[in-house]
Amino acid sequence: MPPHTATATGPAFAAALREPGPGLVVLDPVRATLLTELDALFTGLAELTAAAPVVGPPLLPAEGLARLDYFRNFPHLGVAAARFQDEALDALAAGGAVEDRPVRPTGYLLPSATCYGLLLSLAAQDIGTELRVTAVGRCFRNEDHYDGLRRLWGFHMREVLYLGSADGARAHLADSKVFVEELADRLGVPLSYRPANDPFYDKSGSRAKLMALDPVKYEFTAEDGTAIASVNRHRNFFGERLDITADGQTAHSSCTAFGVERWVHAMVLSHGSPEAALERVRAVRDGAVGGDDRTG
């Protein structure tokens, strides 16, 4: 048998990669490893809060999202799943062009956040005293523009979700804030903490106005303003809309979210190169670094 040739994994390999389209990227081996090892660090919050790992669904029912006012607030972000209509199949099978072939809706959308599928799966259930779960999912958003790893068509979102009492939901967010700030400090990523500016379709609508008066979502932003994590106070909204109860009472919920590709971006921004960023992540993983001690 012929000998195996060496596989390029260094700068030459990274330089050969091209975006398949706007908002679509292939991570080279260093960035891919950086993404995986960062996500492993994020699961430290799940370990801290005893959140059990689960795997969410790849699609979400439009009917379920409508119950959550998703289309009233974010109709412009949704990415719908569709099928080619029967009359298009013969032409496609014969090698015809894909463009303009008729499609029909399936009633499902690609997830735009990991927690939606987890929450919809708990509809009409009593969870007992409380429930803590974590999942990482591929999420999709129809943005008005795309920008490297800062803004993508599809990206990974790690979430740690709490359901139970109002006090428990607040405590989860307090613990999450401390965890994110301490982890970022060890990773050498300077953060700002501010109320989120969610992309509501109607900026003058009641939900957007309420968010401005009483923010329920706060973001952690990197040096260039990229939002890389958030803490989200749902109150009892999902409990009421989905009839989720905790010991017979409407459940309160809160969640913490990490945009994993955006953390890759922030790490490279802070340390100067993917290689230096990966070295820092591994030092944090191995307990060899603490505080703001940049390696890049």
Automatic annotation (TrEMBL):
SUPFAM superfamilies: Class II aaRS and biotin synthetases. It comes from the Bacteria. PROSITE patterns: AA_TRNA_LIGASE_II. Residues 131-286 form the Aminoacyl-transfer RNA synthetases class-II family profile domain. Keywords: Aminoacyl-tRNA synthetase, ATP-binding, Ligase, Nucleotide-binding, Protein biosynthesis. InterPro entries: aa-tRNA-synt_IIb, aa-tRNA-synth_II, aa-tRNA-synth_II/BPL/LPL. This is Aminoacyl-transfer RNA synthetases class-II family profile domain-containing protein. It comes from Kitasatospora terrestris.
